[in-house]
Amino acid sequence: MTGNKSSGKSGRVFLLDEIRGLAIICMVVYHTMFDLKYIFNVDIPIFFEDWFDVIRDIFAGTFIFISGAVCRFSRNNMKRGIQCFFLGMIITFVTPFFSEQYVWFGILHFLGISMMIFGLGEKLFDMLPALAGLLIFGLLFVLTLHVPELVYENNTVVSYGFFGIKGVFEWNIPAEAYKDVLFPFGLHSPKFGSSDYFPLLPWFFLFASGSYFGVWAKDNALPSFFYNKHIGWLCAVGQHTIWIYMLHQPIVYGICMLIFR
């Protein structure tokens, strides 16, 4: 059965490229809406409601999970991680020149660090069977999902993050742990702000869970439709996400400048 799978010749799992392409398109739409609302003061009521944040996190989480999976196909995750983090730092230094927004630990910073962690500890990750790793790190993601969560009332923090499952069991993290020096781990003070923020807790656990899904993908153990190309242009988008992410903001910002200023 695996002999009919396209990845045998191309080395790619085309369905993952297509899903990643859809995720990056949704990310571009989100960032466009963000620019319109917070930089150009164009209010679009349907965006930035609670349900919209959930949709945003679903697509971002999908992108992170697949990024973990494709790490299994890389010859040098350390090199990829350093390059990705460097691109993230370019965004950090350039963004303040164009707006009042800052990006301290965005998706590129996060992915860069995650790739480096995976590259350094790949032999340790390989000690777990794929199914066990997928489930264990998936559970850790769920248990740390609310670590970066600060709850406000009248612009005052009334509660900090916790480990556990909301409404089932919660282990509150002391407020003293929330210092800005720990913001890469999701522990940050109320004064911290980043327009794009993906801390290692909880997102690295989703990345790691995806890396075990990548074991099956690389071994041609998934159903055949994962390896077949369905939408060519979407697949091409998914294969060039890093450049789309780097270039879309200057393009979107430039177009908005022409229209609204």
The residue ranges in which pLDDT falls below 50 over 5 or more consecutive positions are: 1-9
Structural class designation: mainly alpha
Q: Largest sheet, described in full?
A: 2 strands, antiparallel
Shape: globular
Characteristic terms for this protein:
single chain; about 260 residues; mainly alpha; two-stranded antiparallel sheet; 4 strands
Structure notes:
The chain has 9 helices and 4 strands. With 261 residues, it is mainly alpha-helical. The strands form 2 sheets. The chain has a two-stranded antiparallel sheet. A two-stranded antiparallel sheet has the order 3-4. Strand 1 and strand 2 form a beta hairpin. The longest helix has 25 residues, at 14-38. The radius of gyration is 19 Å and the shape is globular. Residues 1-9 have low confidence and may be disordered.
Outline the fold blueprint:
Layout lengths: L6 H4 L3 H25 L11 H21 L6 H18 L12 H19 L4 H14 L7 E3 L2 E4 L2 E4 L3 E4 L27 H19 L13 H7 L2 H20 L1
Antiparallel strand pairs: 1-2, 3-4
Give a nutshell description of this structure:
With 261 residues, the protein is mostly helical.
